[in-house]
Q: What sequence folds into this?
């Protein structure tokens, strides 16, 4: 059974830590009973990644997909969380584990920005698969691994 483990940064503010619980319940409701959804914090709060990973396994997970609940592909989502996921998975060598990119650039995030700003979408839709909209003449893809074009699960090397 597949599990999704959402990981936020963690905070000293309880209200900030509880938000990931709400997100987890929402993801679980949308995913249905065929997927295990758990939440964790990278630091400053519990459950830790290791605790929540163990909860996934105890609930019957054979595969854990770790999702860094962060906007940008910074050091936490590209280095720290994969390292911590690898450490959490070590006691469970029979469990498949992967880490997704952070949110990055995605049309649905742009829609949320417009909705919260009270702006009705009227512009063009960027055709799939690439959602990376960059200044004209810029050859590099600034959105990195979180670009929708490149966003695939990355298997964690043990």
A:
């Amino acid at each position: 059974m597949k599990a999704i483990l959402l990981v936020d940064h963690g905070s000293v503010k309880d209200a900030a830590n509880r938000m990931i619980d709400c997100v987890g319940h929402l993801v679980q409701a949308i995913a249905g009973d065929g997927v295990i959804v758990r939440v964790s914090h990278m630091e400053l709060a519990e459950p830790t990644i290791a605790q929540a990973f163990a909860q996934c396994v105890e609930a019957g997970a054979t595969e854990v997909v770790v999702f860094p609940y962060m906007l940008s592909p910074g050091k936490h989502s590209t280095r720290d969380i994969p390292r911590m996921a690898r450490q959490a998975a070590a006691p469970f060598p029979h469990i498949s584990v992967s880490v997704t990119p952070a949110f990055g650039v995605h049309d649905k995030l742009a829609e949320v920005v417009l909705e919260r700003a009270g702006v009705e979408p009227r512009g063009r839709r960027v055709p799939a698969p690439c959602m990376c909209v960059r200044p004209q003449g810029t050859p590099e893809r600034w959105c990195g691994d979180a670009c929708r074009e490149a966003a695939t699960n990355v298997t964690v090397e043990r």
Observations:
- The helical segments are 14-31, 49-58, 75-89, 107-117.
